[in-house]
Write a structure and sequence with these properties.
This protein has 13 helices and two strands; from the N terminus they run H-H-H-H-H-H-H-H-H-H-H-E-E-H-H. It is mainly α and 362 residues long. A hairpin with a 3-residue loop joins strand 1 and strand 2 (313-314). Helix 1 crosses helix 9 (251-274) and helix 4 crosses helix 7. The longest helix has 27 residues, at 72-98. The two termini are 16 Å apart. This is Putative acyltransferase. Keywords: Acyltransferase, Membrane, Transferase, Transmembrane, Transmembrane helix. InterPro entries: HGSNAT_cat. One of its GO terms (molecular function) is acyltransferase activity.
Length: 362
């Protein structure tokens, strides 16, 4: 395997571990606040997880394609990888609705986490290969400003638009009219059509950090810290006019989450790649097979919910109640312990795959 920047794998693996943790509580009615998404505006630690992954997708594009020529072969490989990600995401959605006979596809959800990763990866990789940093910066600014103007100032059916969860919200309106019943909720989808544009910018900002990591400059950590602080400050200032919101993937949300991503990656880079400390190796193993681990966790979590144990329990519910629920600890703690156990299980799988040199490229 080629030499890798350790901190990037650790960051990616840590993000995947957090994805699994927040997606698999023992009981969704008993979850500590930081492990839930914000109801609408604002953000929690959980709302950092998905943008962190898209950010590191952008960083990884630089590391993977810095020596590649923008030719037909490279574009074909990028296209195939993107289609694989989209296909896996659609499979997970279809599997949930159609288990065990794979029928009744009329309500399958078209958007999703893997679908968004695939689309964002495709366009971010092409922009990196075929343009320069000035063009990428211009595209990012145009998307963020244009998205703000579109959602906040363009009239919708003769009325004023809104950033709230309502019918006169542009993102909700487009998703409802284009996707119909193929959405996460009846009125909106957090991985919907319009919000994919600013999600692309999250990866593009990761490309700038990737450029820093492969540069010859001696002050990489300081540069990333400065980038992080500037993005955070700009994001919080913009929040006054365009609220931080994950479901809408607002422009302020893009900047704030990319700011935190830069600061966290700078810290991990300093500890591992600069100081050489043996830090977070278990996350490095997960980072080397990130998509595979995420897919496996999503797939088997769905099976655990779908397989019935008795009349009133899923396999998930039976396992949770039998092993993790005790009168001596709170329900929220039991729920968290279940999630931590599931996460540890998939980290173990990642460790075994890494030690056996099994690296599955999706």
């Amino acid at each position: 395997m080629k030499e890798r920047i350790v901190s990037v794998d650790i960051f990616r693996g840590l993000t995947i571990a957090l994805m699994i943790l927040v997606n698999t509580p023992g009981n969704w009615e008993h979850v500590y606040g930081p492990f839930l998404h914000a109801p609408w505006h604002g953000y929690t630690p959980t709302d950092l997880v998905f943008p962190f992954f898209l950010f590191i997708v952008g960083t990884s594009i630089v590391l993977a394609y810095r020596n590649r020529r923008p030719d037909a072969s490279t574009v074909r490989k990028i296209s195939v990888r993107s289609l694989k990600l989209i296909g896996l995401g659609l499979f997970l959605g279809a599997f949930t609705l159609t288990f065990p006979f794979f029928k009744d596809f009329e309500d399958i959800r078209f958007p999703g986490v893997l679908q968004r990763i695939g689309i964002v990866f495709f366009f971010a990789a092409l922009l990196y290969l075929y343009t320069n940093w000035r063009v990428i910066l211009a595209v990012s600014i145009i998307i963020l400003l244009g998205y703000w103007v579109w959602l906040g100032y363009i009239p919708l059916e003769g009325g004023s638009p809104t950033y709230e969860r309502a019918a006169n919200n542009w993102t909700n309106y487009i998703d409802l009219n284009v996707l119909g019943t193929h959405m996460y909720k009846e009125d909106y989808d957090p991985e919907g059509i319009l919000s994919t544009f600013p999600a692309l910018v999250t990866a593009l900002l990761g490309i700038f950090t990737g450029r820093v990591l492969i540069s010859a400059r001696p002050s990489k950590v300081i540069t990333m810290v400065i980038m992080g602080v500037v993005m955070l400050a700009a994001g919080y200032l913009w929040d006054v006019f365009f609220p931080i919101n994950k479901a809408l993937w607002t422009s302020s949300y893009v900047l704030v989450t990319a700011g935190w991503a830069n600061l966290l990656l700078a810290l991990i880079y300093y500890l591992t790649d600069v100081r050489g400390l043996k830090f977070g190796s278990i996350f490095r193993y997960a980072g080397a097979n990130a998509i595979t681990i995420y897919f496996l966790s999503s797939f088997f979590t769905k099976i655990f919910y779908l397989v019935r144990v008795g009349e009133n329990n899923s396999l998930h519910g039976w396992l949770y109640k039998t092993v993790f629920v005790y009168e001596s600890i709170s329900m929220k703690t039991s729920s968290l312990l279940y999630g931590l156990t599931v996460t540890a299980f998939y980290l173990l799988i990642a460790y075994l795959m890494y030690k056996r040199n099994i690296f599955i490229k999706v």
